[in-house]
UniProtKB/TrEMBL annotation, chain B:
GO terms for biological process: endonucleolytic cleavage of tricistronic rRNA transcript (SSU-rRNA, 5.8S rRNA, LSU-rRNA). Belongs to the RNA 3'-terminal cyclase family. Type 2 subfamily. Residues 7-332 form the RNA 3'-terminal phosphate cyclase domain. It comes from Actinomortierella ambigua. This is rRNA-processing endoribonuclease. It is found in: Nucleus, Nucleolus. Coiled coil: none annotated. CDD domains: RNA_Cyclase_Class_I. GO terms for molecular function: RNA endonuclease activity.
Length: 125, 367
């Protein structure tokens, strides 16, 4: 399943970032991409692509999805985005997993002390 | 591009756009800054950042409309020199220092900037992380001699009172980088500090963090207790951790403690965040992604290549802004290594490739 996920995602990352910019950065990271079938560019919002489309505060209706722009991002996103800090992305919520020895062991091969023969375990999140 | 004015909306990504405009010399217009907010317009820290930008440049004009909801910024030249700036209490020093790090190498005379305010909090990256993580990244691009950040005084929120001095050499051009081998982690370093609380707080944070990071023996986390006038105006404690690999890639994490938190919790949380950061892999951690990518774009007309872990939303917007200001696109290749053929590497990383625009610091005289 993981490979399927990545094969779907791999060719798209550049286009998602540099394409018509209809997705906010958060959506790209979270994989929260509606209508994955219409990856092709829809044509609108090409005036420099700065996300100045007509989407407004009344988001969440389906038509507005296409126009998801900076404007909606401003009202739509979490507090972290509002504070303009690259550190905001470091706030993890699932830190408890590191209490499990298994999770900790999965990182062992990343250290020079770890054995090179170990197959590392599953580190994917 | 129909005009030379770049227009944006909203207050997000305020600093990076001003920095990119300054570097590229393009006129920047930002509209609708919190125009729907009950308290519209620029916040005090944003205005403060504009003032700082005026101090380190010459010839810049900033027009702000009456309500503060739109600004037009015409950049000048980066002059640098000796500057002092009070960062206030709404944002930490990192908010101001982080963009300065990107500007400083391209200044006319070397920057020597003293910033006062809050040194560590949980919103902006701390001065420790800037010193131990961001500045070493610059060295990879050939910015080395005299690059330093002194932290004589600490200042915890809410009242701050800390002071740092940032000195950066100037360069004419950058070197391209090829950094795709992330290596394996060989040592862990860190700083734990406390001010106006029991001196044992530092040691307790260190002990808790060490307990989690039992992968390598080479762990050295300095426990510092600031006293007297070096300790700022508020009680506080924080820890900043750094893992360094055999190829000098860094991973970092930091947590500042607040009221009611025990130092053990803070140490544990920082250590676990470091592990999460390590798991993401790549040669560059999340905090330094934007700086590295910017320096790659500004590099000579040569290919730069770097391996990163997962991109952050902040970085994605940065990539878009880089394209707007400099017209450069990154080639992003996703490498999935499920079989772990390259032992020790993270399973999922991205290789970012770009050709530098050959940025030349015309302010620096050639000798």
């Amino acid at each position: 399943a993981e490979s399927v996920f990545h094969s779907r995602r791999r060719p798209n990352l550049m286009r998602l970032i540099y394409g018509d910019r209809k997705y906010t950065p958060e959506q790209i990271i979270n994989g929260d991409l509606d209508e994955p079938t219409s990856k092709d560019q829809n044509g609108e919002d090409s005036d420099e692509g700065f996300g100045t489309g007509p989407g407004t505060a009344g988001e969440e209706s389906d038509e507005d999805e296409d126009f998801l722009t900076l404007k909606t991002e401003q009202t739509d996103t979490t507090l972290e985005q509002m504070i303009d800090s690259c550190k905001s992305t470091l706030v993890y919520t699932d830190l408890d997993e590191w209490d499990e020895q298994e999770t900790k062991d999965s990182l062992r091969s990343r250290f020079i002390t770890g054995s090179l023969d170990l197959p590392g375990g599953e580190a994917g999140g | 591009m129909n005009t030379k004015v770049l227009k944006y909306e909203g207050h997000n990504y305020f600093r990076q756009r001003l920095v990119l405009a300054t570097l590229s010399g393009k006129v920047l217009k930002i509209e609708k800054i919190r125009s729907d907010d009950t308290n519209p317009g620029l916040r005090d820290f944003e205005a403060s950042f504009l003032r700082l930008l005026e101090k380190v440049t010459n010839g810049a004009t900033i027009e702000i409309n009456y309500t503060g909801t739109s600004i037009v910024y015409k950049p000048g030249v980066i002059t640098g020199g000796k500057v002092h700036h009070d960062c206030g209490k709404s944002r930490a020093i990192g908010y101001f220092l982080e963009p300065l790090v990107a500007l400083a190498p391209f200044s006319k005379v070397p920057m020597n900037i003293t910033l006062s305010g809050i040194t560590n909090d949980n919103v902006d990256i701390s001065v420790d992380t800037i010193r131990t993580v961001l500045l070493p990244q610059l060295k990879k691009f050939g910015i080395e001699e005299g690059l330093e950040l002194d932290i004589p005084n600490r200042g915890a929120p809410p009242n701050g009172g800390g002071k740092v001095t940032f000195r950066c050499p100037i360069v004419r051009t950058l070197k391209p980088i090829q950094f795709t081998d992330e290596g394996r982690i060989k040592r862990i370093r860190g700083v734990a500090y406390c001010t106006r609380v029991a001196p044992q707080f530092s040691n307790r944070m260190v002990d808790a963090a060490r307990g989690v990071l039992d992968y390598v023996n080479d762990i050295n986390i300095a426990a510092v207790h600031y006293q007297g006038d070096k300790s700022g105006l508020s009680p506080g404690f924080a820890i900043s951790l750094l893992a360094k690999t055999t190829t000098s890639a860094f991973y970092s994490a930091e947590v500042a403690g607040g009221p009611g938190q025990s130092p053990e919790d803070v140490g544990l949380q920082a250590a676990k965040m470091l592990l999460s950061e390590i798991r993401k892999g790549g040669c560059v951690d999340s905090i330094s992604q934007t700086l590295i990518l910017l320096m790659m774009v500004l590099g000579p007309n040569d290919v730069s290549k770097v391996r990163v872990g997962e991109l952050t939303p902040f970085t994605i917007q940065y990539l878009r802004d880089l394209q707007d200001f400099f017209g450069s696109q990154f080639k992003i290749t996703q490498e999935v290594d499920n079989d772990r053929t390259h032992l020790g590497a993270a399973p999922n990383t991205l290789v970012m490739t770009c050709v530098g625009i050959g940025y030349v610091n015309t302010n620096k005289k050639t000798t």
